Amino acid sequence: MKYYLAHSKKARIELFKIYSDSVWYNRRDGGFMMAYNTGANLNQGKMIEFGLDKTLSPIAKQIVTNSYLGTRFLPYDINTKERLDDLDAVLAYLVTNNYITQLQADEVETLSDLPYDMSYRIVQEPDGKYLFTDLHTLKKAIALLRTYNPVNGTW
User: Where are the domains positioned within the chain?
Assistant: First the structure.
């Protein structure tokens, strides 16, 4: 989500609209002001539950529904992908990039023999080729991120 917000101007504009609309909604008659408007005597200490969904105005809820901010999975795939011709090429790629050891690769005869790992996904496509997807692309990019030092002008 952070990557999406950092690289999508449309997402940042929609998020700003949601924030500003929610602030306006909560300052006026909606949101948490509903407790006051219901006539509940708050001095009696009765518990009145208002969920977090009451903080968003109907307009903000519609913005979330119509944008990718309301989805669990973004439509953009930022993971590194590699198409490989056969299983031997897959094994060579995995060993070269330190996903598995050569001893583990020697034991693999089919795709299902590969050790289970959540850092990558390998799928055999209908044309017989293999698609390797690195699921930690963003995590690796953040680890290699350099920060700028304005004092001496270096990264």
Answer: 2-70, 80-141
